[in-house]
Write a structure and sequence with these properties.
Helix content: 55-70%
Number of helices: 4
Shape: elongated
Strand order of the largest sheet: 1-2-3
Number of domains: 1
Strand content: 15-25%
Largest sheet: 3 strands, mixed
Order of helices and strands: HHEEHHE
Radius of gyration: 17 Å
Length: 96
C-alpha cells in the first residue's frame, strides 16, 4: 500500500488560483470591497469609483474636505486594507 499526501481544500484552492493566474484579481476584488467595510457609511456616501492599477488603489471622493483628510492618511488606510485582505495587495492609494 502507498501513502498519499493529504492536503486541505483551502490549500488546493489556493494552488489552483495561483496556477491559473486568478489569485491577484481575487485579492484586488477583496481589497476594493474592504474599502466599504473599513471606511464606514459616512465616507462610503462620498466615495465614487474605486479601482486598482499596478498595486495602486484609485478612489474618487466627491467631498473636497474629506478628500484632503483621507489623502493625509493614505499609508494607514493602505495598511488596514492589506491587513483586512491578508496579503500585500495595495502599495499606495491615490485619492482624487
Amino acid at each position: 500500500m502507498f501513502r498519499r499526501e493529504v492536503k486541505s481544500i483551502s490549500d488546493l484552492l489556493n494552488m489552483y488560483l495561483r496556477r491559473e493566474g486568478l489569485e491577484t484579481p481575487l485579492l484586488q476584488k477583496r481589497a476594493i470591497a474592504a474599502w466599504d467595510t473599513l471606511m464606514g457609511p459616512t465616507i462610503v456616501r462620498y466615495t465614487g469609483e474605486k479601482y486598482i492599477k499596478n498595486q495602486t488603489m484609485f478612489v474618487k471622493i466627491t467631498n473636497p474636505a474629506l478628500r484632503q483628510d483621507l489623502s493625509m492618511m493614505r499609508t494607514k488606510i493602505a495598511q488596514r486594507i492589506n491587513q483586512a485582505v491578508g496579503s500585500q495587495v495595495i502599495v499606495d492609494i491615490r485619492i482624487y
